[in-house]
Amino acid sequence: MGLDEAVLLSPDVEPIRYDVSLTPDMSKFTYEGSTEVSVTVVNRTSTISMHAKELAFWSCSYTPAGGSPQQAKGIELDVRATTVAFVFAEPLLPGKGTVAVAFTGQLNNEMAGFYRSSYTDINGISRVMGSTQFESLDARRAFPCWDEPSRKAVFKLTLTVPASLTAFSNMPEASCTTLPGGELKALSFMDSPRMSSYLLAWCVGEFDYVSALAASGVVVRVYTPPGKAASGEFSLDCAVRTLDLYDGFFGVPYPLPKLDMVAIPEFAMGAMENWGLVTYREVDLLIDPVKASSAQRQRVCSVVTHELAHQWFGNLVTMAWWDDLWLNEGFASWTENMAADALFPEWKMWEQYTVDSAAAALRLDAMRSSHPIQVPIRHAEEVEEVFDAISYCKGSYVVKMVHAVLGRENFQKGLMAYMDKHKYGNTITADLWAAWEASSGMPIAEMMQSWTTQMGYPVLTVSDFKEAGGKATVSVKQEWFLADGSEVSAADAKLWCVPILTSTKGGISDDVSMMREDTMAVTVDLAGGDWFKFNADQQVPMRVSYPDDVMARMSAAIKSKAMGASDRAGLLLDSYALVKSGRGNAGSLMKLLTSYADEDDATVWEAIEGVLTGLDTVLVADEGIRADLNKVAKKIIAPLLAKVGWQAAKDDGHLTVLLRATLIRLLGTFMYDDEGVVAEARS
């Protein structure tokens, strides 16, 4: 849909620069505010319309450049549309001017807009802090503004707060003045870059912090509740290293002089990427430096790398309208894994991606109740409905697919060109496709159209396997995959532009062919081996169904680990999904499971766990097959448990810790009657 059909504020007046001043009363939970906005009157008008919600207005005036102020004769609130219209007796003529508004607001307790959080300090005393959460539509709850992503402007903020409290915003402090009496101080912050209203942020309260310098000289701080500074050390290290990584990856240096990350006691999201002041739920930023688990460290690292990706993709370059939110979040979700993998390669983040984000995307998008990645949004309020796993997980999955098709060099080259061309501006999805087409010469827009504008994904059915001269030839058919196994009518049939990526004994083939029709003949160079697997490294959101003779060859590659971990996990997850949909049978799946008898990869075991527990639930009414399942499960669990053990060891790696947790979870279902397991559990 885009901007042309969206419900927007009038284009008659455009903001250039905001000067926002707020004086919060931290005991009464109210604040007084004033805003002076430098604007351009584009068309002759008698009305200035802005977004506003839960604000009370006292006055408004407009002063044309070099002219005299004119007071608004009327203030008209539209509660449903969350707008305010300032009506003037004399028309405002095209040109530059300043809008001045006086208003009051409340520090609500709804975790949106300018709101308050309660917490207990290290002395057991209840405290209150103030912070903001504006995405998507809540900047208007804090001050009147043009609360649309394409109405970018510069923001200057002044906060008058109790002298004993700390306050900070997107930009560094420009001045601090103690007011007469010494109880209050006025903090003014430097002008922000040109940005969208939802990225403005500030915090007021009591904090400790830890800090470090990035290689570029950017000051990075992690703000914590008093007495918890040490719990910010890990996220600080992640942030500094991530900033350095992204400076090179995006080709545009981080443009602000500082980056603050702050833990908020009461926070609705995991985190929010406000430019230069990223806010987090405490558990997603702060961890005990001694007691933190491997899972906690990975979670904190992933959230930090995700939010810092937004400093470029979303903040520096912003979607023109909310229907492109998926690209904002999907790209950051892809980048979080790329960065975490670079910071901690021993975590094998891309292998984990196969059984986490990718699996979630495939599970949800196989339902008839799913929706396309790119959803038309007419009213901004509708955006809350698409902040879901399709935007994040499938969005990141299709970015992963593009990266696999283009290769890292062309992918990064196009991304750098996109960032440089559109920095401080707004874009639509097609702008990124165009940049990648220019860097690669490949039809990216054609391919991506089929993946972003229609819901679901395909299942490729492989048949007619023939081998000759070191090559395999097969027929491939694509259909819309539905988890419930329901038939797809001819009218509902879908086609995708599917990149065919292949794994063999020789690794992942460099050749990429595009499947545009419903059937296609494919020839694979077996690279001296006897097996192949489509969807190499699970790079494409789809399922693949193979005939028994091809599966038998892949089973041998699973046993020998000639097949990579992502492929071993993905093949099992595909087979399980096919069984549940009625396209496969449980007997064949259990036969495949026996191929994992010597499996010791933590990621593959996460896939095995999902399949074993899923089958145990599905087969609850079939005691015979369920007994066979238990035998298979014990056969593959027991040897590895003996090797990994129940107790943590000093030399445990990150993935060993996760693997042990997976195995112990499985014991209660499949080895509850084993005497050794029962004895160890009792001890």
UniProtKB/TrEMBL annotation:
CDD domains: M1_APN-Q_like (cd09601). Keywords: Aminopeptidase, Hydrolase, Metal-binding, Metalloprotease, Protease, Zinc. It comes from the Eukaryota. Residues 15-199 form the Aminopeptidase N-like N-terminal domain. Its cofactor is Zn(2+). The keyword Protease applies. SUPFAM superfamilies: Leukotriene A4 hydrolase N-terminal domain, Metalloproteases ('zincins'), catalytic domain. The keyword Metal-binding applies. InterPro entries: Aminopeptidase_N-like_N, Aminopeptidase_N-like_N_sf, ERAP1-like_C_dom, M1_APN-typ, Peptidase_M1, Peptidase_M1_aminopeptidases, Peptidase_M1_dom, Peptidase_M4/M1_CTD_sf. Residues 234-451 form the Peptidase M1 membrane alanine aminopeptidase domain. It holds the Pfam family ERAP1_C. Residues 531-682 form the ERAP1-like C-terminal domain. Belongs to the peptidase M1 family. This is Aminopeptidase. It comes from Tetraparma gracilis.
